[in-house]
Amino acid sequence: METVSPVPAGIKLEIGLWVATGKLWVKGLVLNGIVTRINPSFGVRLKFDNMEAPERETLRQFLRFVENITKSYQSQQGYLAQMKR
Question: Which of 6, 63, 67, 76 stands the most exposed, by the fewest C-beta atoms within 10 Å?
Fold first, then answer.
């Protein structure tokens, strides 16, 4: 997840994602601190918590969409390029 400021490990978050059917609220736990820093943002790893099957499937579809859209993103300075290092 990309944030404007660093988020300490162990912090619980609730994230609202706009998906085709409306807004999906997911709860997560920050697994570790900053995994990449690209001004002006930071990237942290999340573990999603206690989701019902329909919510989990909606999140999977959302993440698949993001993955497909960003596959062509080749910038060495980009967030996804930094995550692969």
Answer: 76
